[in-house]
Amino acid sequence: MNPLPLVAVAGSPNAGKSALFNALTGARQKVGNYPGVTVERHSGRLTLEDGRPVEMVDLPGAYSLEPASPDEAVTRDVLLGRQKGERQPDVLIIVVDASNLDNHLRFALQLIELGLPTIIALNMIDLAKRDGLELDPAALERELGVPVIATVAVRRRGISELQAALDDMLTSPRCGVHEHVKSDIVRLQRRAREIATAGVISETPVRRWTHRLDSVLLHPVFGPIILAALMFVMFQAVFAWSAVPMERIGDGVAWLSSAVTGALPPGLFRSLIVDGAIAGVGAVITFLPQILILFLFILLLEGTGYMVRAAFLMDRLMHGVGLSGRAFIPLLSSFACAVPGIMATRTIDDPKDRLTTILVAPLMTCSARIPVYTLIIAAFIPNTRLAWGIGLQGLVMFGLYVCGIGGALLAAFALRRGVLKGGGGGFMMELPKYQWPLLKDVLIGLLTRVEIFLKRAGTIILGTTIVLWALASVPQAGPGQKQSEVSIAGHIADGIETVVKPIGFNHEIALALLPAMAAREVAVSAIATVYSIDSADQAGGGKIEDRLKHSWPLPTALAFLAWFVFAPQCISTIAVTRRETNGWKWPLFMVGYLFLLAYLAAALTYWTAVALGL
Amino acid sequence: MNAPFQPDTTSLDLLKVGTKARVAAIDWAALDESEACRLRHFGFDEGVTVEPLHLGPFGRDPMAIRVGRMTVAIRRRHAGAIRVTPLAQITR
Description:
- By secondary structure, chain A is of the alpha/beta class.
- Chain A is 59% helix and 9% strand.
- Chain B is an alpha+beta fold.
- Strand 12 of chain A pairs antiparallel with strand 5 (70-74) of chain B, so a sheet runs across the interface.
């Protein structure tokens, strides 16, 4: 069977390409990866009027066929039929922003020269009108020699005309494709300006909305204040709005595991289902509300055009440690979870900037560390009030966050002067017009991102939990033996203990470090399990905080906190780093340097605390 | 033979916000290949009108510059490679 005809949607960044793609294909989209590169492939299906299906692919935005980023290289290779895992498109739809023709027509001209059957979508024609620009699509069609269709993708205007033109293109015979000759950008740019001028009927200068908004949002004083306020709201939302659903999900998981425990006979199989599968999947979906809210904010910030402004405001500060403004949002997202944070680094063009951002992202205190911090602080830090509204416990929590941020900045500084020296494409970004994102586009974005998160983090966490469960359950303890010592995990913990003993860690901590690899918050339940197993003979049991208080000296507790600020104990972060850097070199480097940092920090904390007689 | 009239040029990073100017020359050699490529893609070219619109809050870096119909953000260092002639000088 012949494959479906392939229609590629291409265009410069900020031309409204994805909105047009969504308008053509609807919500049934697939997101994959081009083989060998970390560039997403968005595809969908369109049914023509006569019922024929067509495959559509949304190519990454590009300014020209001379790539300046991996995304642009994929766009070029697909169009030239050189991309692995993609056939050459049969028809090309070029999306141009009607109010930025001078620039966008340059890329369009370059694409038209390729000789593929081409249609131009003159998009966002309503916004051009709002800016006082009256355009003549017929004149543009004459100058360019290909069909030009005025569209407003977000209002579905011009979509049926576009489909009709597509139908014509697909039925007419196809001519050969020219091999791409390196085009002279300056010549193309001048020709683009001529055509853009020819296509303008009238232009009335108006003060643009975007400019007025930018005067406030990029104001040297109000700009940073508004950014800080927005970030505060975002964090408030991520942590406050998610509290109730997370609790419900937690309750649901607990209910399910107790129901299964009741229904199955005791034994290895029940243990696998309850402690392996349900616990593993539960750990992932408990964080789903936070991830959803975080993604929603990121999509809204991206969709409105504010994201680039945030990068603009922060660039100078980030530049100080060798990063660019674009690293700001990925690092901020990492406060919720490093996995979406690392996924968000794809917007950073420069490979070294991007790699540095990925490597320091795990140092941002992610929400999975909060349960660990809360437990240890509640057990060891007295709840004294230092001043009005400031308690010692809160201050320690704040201090741990500051340590993480400080560590990240230092690490970035060191990386940019060491292994990741040089490069640095600086900071060059287009500031697009502000616009309201369409609810449908936001929802499609949210769904695809959540799907990717669940697939990547979910499968890895589930797999790891089952492996760790097996290590902790095999071989089974005989009568009078402790499961935590007989099992393979117990023996591994013996090995770990000899390494971590000098920094004040005991056998129980060594045992908890192992399952904490699956997800950091699992350390809490692991410690709880170890202590409940080992104190099974003692009556009552009591709260885990109280038990810890009696069995750990204070320096050990402080060293444990310091360890968790830096340690990369999260398989999903390591796995997503492998995926995003295309190999094992950088994830291994990350694990190595973070463990080293964690060990040094814990050692320093322990020895200082012991010396001070705490 | 009289020398042709040469209006005073300055570099783009020294231009005040709201001052329109025409690009006189770009020192491509001062830029990386990828930086130069990006600037060309943004439409920086001799004869194009540019105008600084906003400056970053810290150290007045980066700069938001209107070029053609686009607004782009570039760092001060890159703006320094672009020589411009203020429009007021040309019309004088």
